[in-house]
Design a protein that fits this description.
Blueprint lengths: L1 H42 L5 H24 L6 H27 L7 H28 L1
Helix pairs in contact: 1-2, 1-4, 2-3, 3-4
């Protein structure tokens, strides 16, 4: 039992920055997702769900960029990071829209479908953003 605990502690100490990045990413992601979903939820009753989803995504995108810079990766906003962030979110948005429409097509409620979308898209986006922010940090800092 001591061996397992010691091994887990060594792994934590070795990877603690990544652990805390993931934790901060989760907090920032929850806030950005709440903004996105709230806007989507209220708009989807009045306009097309794809437009409502896009409007929520765009507004949360700007909030997310600054929170990701300052909180998740503890870096300053830069043009390189904004371009990388935008590219990763363009990929992420494509994944979101594909999944949203796929879930709607198979009959998932338009109120619930975004939750399933986030379950797939969030881990994918973390990997893209980690690459962008750690790569640009080494080159520009």
């Amino acid at each position: 039992m001591k061996c397992i605990t010691r091994t887990m502690l060594k792994a934590y100490l070795k990877n603690r920055e990544t652990f805390w990045q993931i934790a901060r990413y989760g907090i920032v992601g929850c806030i950005a997702s709440a903004i996105h979903y709230a806007i989507y939820y209220f708009l989807q009753f009045h306009i097309n769900v794809n437009i409502a989803y896009t409007a929520g995504y765009v507004i949360s995108f700007f909030c997310n960029f600054f929170m990701t810079c300052f909180l998740t990766f503890r870096s300053s906003p830069s043009t390189k990071r904004a371009v990388g962030f935008s590219f990763s979110h363009l990929v992420n948005y494509s994944i979101h829209m594909f999944l949203l429409n796929a879930f709607l097509f198979i009959g998932v409620s338009k109120v619930i479908a975004p939750i399933f979308v986030l379950m797939v898209a969030v881990p994918t986006n973390f990997c893209l953003l980690k690459f962008v922010f750690t790569r640009t940090s080494k080159k520009s800092d």
